[in-house]
Amino acid sequence: MSNDEIAKQYDDFSVTYSDNLRDQDKIGNGKFYEIISTLDFKNKKLLDIGCGDGSDLLNYQEMGAMPVGLEPSLEFIKQAKSKSAHLEIIQGVGENLPFEDNSFDIVVSKYALQNMIDVPKVFEETARVLKKNGYLVILSKHPIRQFLEKVKTYDGKEINYFEQKIVDSYIYEKKIHLREPTHTFAEYFSAKVLKNFDLLEFIEDFDFPASEQIDNFIYPTFFVAKYLRR
């Protein structure tokens, strides 16, 4: 499954996603904003990888930042532009950031990295465009959740946590069905990633029923991490 195919899914259900985001994603969104609340946004150049419908870009703008959005879905970009024609949004993916070195003071990403095939490459690109002592804050699906989705998708057959597979993921009380690549914790926290960053904060939690609960297990469905660029 290519990045283009993954983005096409969001074109197909972008309106449903946006309509349910505020009500269905209170827990993860709340944890994310709790962590970034300590940052100084005033006059800071900010990149939002996977900016969706632009709602967060407007929030960052109100907080004093100069935000730029990167988004693969054309339908999401149209929605964002309908909110504010002045928003700066570029179509693209995190593995290939179309920006110069040391361009941003802050990089953020909400529920986007897990959609990308090569997460370590996203960190490499982020380290390139982020200034020294700049911040990266991500909200992403938890690898344990993706592992359980892998078990369900492939009916428990020959399941290997370390092998990337495309799995079925249901969100917002099953109103949306996604196909996404799985990831491991090492892709977010390996020595290769942390050679460019210091990990400052980490939170993991669950958000049922916004995320499908498999077999009534209690497990983390998302995590939030805050990094400092060395």
Supply database-style keywords.
8 helices; 7-stranded mixed beta sheet; 230 residues; 9 strands; alpha/beta; Rossmann fold; single chain; 27% strand; two-stranded antiparallel sheet
What does this structure look like?
With 230 residues, the protein is of the alpha/beta class. The protein has one domain (3-141, 184-229): Rossmann fold (3-Layer(aba) Sandwich), CATH 3.40.50.150. Helices cover 35% and strands 27% of the residues. It has helices at 3-24, 26-36, 55-62, 74-83, 119-129, 143-153, 186-189, 191-194, and strands at 45-49, 66-70, 88-90, 104-110, 130-141, 166-171, 176-181, 197-205, 222-229. Strands 3-2-1-4-5-9-8 form a seven-stranded mixed beta sheet. Strand 2, helix 4 (74-83) and strand 3 form a beta-alpha-beta unit. Helix 1 (3-24) crosses helix 4 (74-83). The longest helix has 22 residues, at 3-24. It starts with a helix and ends with a strand.
